[in-house]
Amino acid sequence: xxxxxxxxxxxxxxxxxxFSFKRDGIRVDAFVANYRGEIVAFENLCRHQPLTLDxxxxxxxxxxxxxxxxxxxxxxxHPKTGLxxxxxxxxxxxxPLNIEITDGxxxxxxxxxx
Length: 114
Ligand code: FES
Description:
Elements: E1 2-7, E2 16-23, E3 26-35, E4 38-43, E5 68-69, E6 76-77, E7 84-86, E8 99-102, E9 105-109
Antiparallel strand pairs: 1-9, 2-3, 3-4, 5-6, 6-7, 8-9
Bound molecules: FE2/S2 (inorganic) cluster.
FE2/S2 (inorganic) cluster binds at residues 46, 48-49, 51, 70, 72-75, 87-88.
């Protein structure tokens, strides 16, 4: 499955964008982020409890832009690896998603949903 998520120009450093896709007929919430010039994408699902990280408002980054923060209980995840480095699920990782950047466009390439 391949899905266009955003234009690279529309996702400047320090910003994120929510999206969803279907896997086996089930909607998966996800987000793509520009972390210090690197584009990353993860399922929008905290590893502590089955809740979205942003709780629906599209805020993922900590105030200094160095981490992703779950708004429910404050778990902190490293944006590059998805690893929870502080909080109730320390040691667990967000589920990463494959992306490709072609001709200035970011695409989700989710092999599991083929
Ligand atoms: S639900 Fe995310 S830290 Fe508890």
